[in-house]
Amino acid sequence: MHRRLAVDLFAGSGGLTVGLKQAGFSVVGAVESDPLAASTYRKNHPRVKLLEEDIKVLQPAALAESARFVIGELDLLSGCPPCQGFSTLRTLNGKVAIHDPQNDLVFDFLRFVRELKPKAVMMENVPGLYGDTRLASIQKQLCRAGYQSEARVLNAQDFGVPQRRLRMVLIALRGAKPIFARGKTRRRTVRQAIGRMPEPGLGNDPLHDYSVKRSPRVKQIIEAIPLDGGSRTALPKKLKLDCHTKTDGFKDVYGRMRWASQSPTITGGCINPSKGRFLHPEQNRPITLREAAMLQGFPFKYYFSLEHGRYPAAQMIGNAFPPKFAEHHAREIAESLDDL
After folding, report:
1. What residue spans define the domains of the chain?
2. Is 3.40.50.150 the CATH classification of the domain at 4-186+322-339?
3. pTM of the entire predicted model
């Protein structure tokens, strides 16, 4: 069987790499500049040549030499350029308030495509990029380089991930029209993902068994939220926070997940009940780091560094490309390459 070679740019903690491997690709190289994410990646993927460098100054040829592949040999170049900059911040008159330089990292991704000449390309980002002029520019440049491309906004819950997560996926093939994976009709639920997890403190998993101190008032609020999908709207008046009575928004704050449904989008605030619907369906606590990782679709024993504490680990988990989401699209790409 032909060995399919892949590279993961903006690798983070390795969610995309997990999906590529599950789809049968051999991930030979990766790039990640954040030290904490890089240490996490290396622990889980020791055989991948990871370059801990700033992609803006890294030369594609240096990556090819380090990962031991030749220009044009790579089957798939994939990556998730940092996407926070595409969250629109606007002034009072509706104009965009700032320019985030991270937005232009998508063009560094494109630079690697042009120079490494992979047979296929997959890029993931937030839906905001779909309506951005940069996407049109990227697709024009891909066309000039000999690629046919298509971008779609898809929901991870349709691809085996027990989570509602909208993401834009761009796929390009050299000399052929890309085909997207078909969504699954049966969706994976919160119960299927974390329903068998023991209560925290009963095992030896540092991502699950840590203890958290909370004020008596916060404990009261959590205990008063109805089980299995309840929200803060059910709280008695004495437990409602002043900030919540002054706005109709953020209704998921202090909400519980529902066993039979999918979780909300797992973010960097996923272990904090004040950041969204992150309470366990029936236990009086937020989900743990391990449960968040499982809702993202990471393998049960996947390592995340706690060197800088829980919240940086939560950020790594929340920023990840759900492995199962990546796997479905990578499998479709592999089949398309087989037909070329």
Report:
1. 4-186+322-339
2. yes
3. 0.92
